[in-house]
Amino acid sequence: MYYLGIDLGGINIAAAVVDEAGKILGRYSRPTPKAPAVQVADEMARAARAAVEQAGLTLEQIASLGVGSPGAIDPTEGTVLYWCNLDFEHVPLGKLLEDRLRLPVYLENDANAAALGEYAAGAGKDSTSMVAITLGTGIGGGAVLNGKLYTGFNYAGMEVGHFVLEYHGRPCNCGRRGCFEAYCSATALIRQTRAAMEAHPDSLLWTAAGSLDAVEGRTAFAAQAQGDPAARSVVEEYQQYLACGIASLINIFQPEVFCVGGGVANAGETLLAPVRAMVAQEDYARNNPRQTRIVRAALGNDAGLIGAALLPVFR
Ligand code: BGC
């Protein structure tokens, strides 16, 4: 059996065909148009067809399409109810894609899909419970508890990007202030890196990035590796906020595995080793012999794709 998966991101639409074990057989990616939903659906259908072609298959050989989309999703209706980073409100994405591809479509929040991918075929494999976060354009979160995706009674649960770390803190795209996402998304890291560059014209951050416009999530880590003090304070502040958020989530769920994914997680142990030490100080269960393992996502950017594709398998 072959399954199509699409990970709809703020920047890219990534499509892949996977087998039952989550192995990717063909893939295709194209930029997400900053356009109305109908055009976004057109591009998604194009990416899906191209991935099928890459796999050397035809659409007739595909069982279904699973889509991970940011925002609040109603999987029963196949609707994106709300997504704050593209102008999506009550978008019938499932229907739009069914019309274009003539396949059954399963829709889920992108971070839930990524959590499912890691649970099925990555860092959470064989665990009883896992909480996963993705540090990207926003922060997504997902929880698989006792083998089942936990989404809340209305499917809008686990919006971990929008729990508040700082009351009245930095503004967030969702309309609140002080959200985890406003401190620990790649977007937030890039914003803080740019601010540090402006404050320190002699910082190695300038060499690492090239220009303000070219700053990426990895820029601060690259300049920190060269011993740059401005970069070090950007990274340390980022890690402190991240550890605070992770510790709070661990205190609530005490999952067997806590999985950190998304672009920023590519910094690997440089990011995670200090975060683990900080979390250990704040974990309420620190005296418990059984401790949550904080690990980097194993599937990288593919978690969302694989999880989306395997959605029907976990229903
Ligand atoms: C959205 C989430 C999404 C995350 C990652 C957040 O801003 O609220 O629904 O999972 O970004 O894309």
Task: Describe the model.
Helix content is 37%, strand content 23%. The chain has 315 residues and is α/β, with parallel strands linked by helices. α5 (186-199) packs antiparallel against α8 and α8 packs across α9 (269-282). The longest helix has 25 residues, at 229-253. The two termini are 16 Å apart. The protein binds beta-D-glucopyranose. Beta-D-glucopyranose is lined by residues 70-71, 84-85, 109-111, 134, 136-140, 159, 161-162, 181.
- SSE run: EEEHEEEEHEHEEEHHHHHEHEH
Number of helices: 10
Beta-strand content estimate: 15-25%
Averaging pLDDT over every residue, what do you get? 95
Termini Cα gap: 16 Å
SS-based structural class? alpha/beta
Helix content: 25-40%
- List cofactors, ions and other ligands: beta-D-glucopyranose
Quaternary structure type? single chain
Number of strands: 13
Write a concise keyword list for the protein shown above.
single chain, 315 residues, alpha/beta, 5-stranded mixed β-sheet, 10 helices
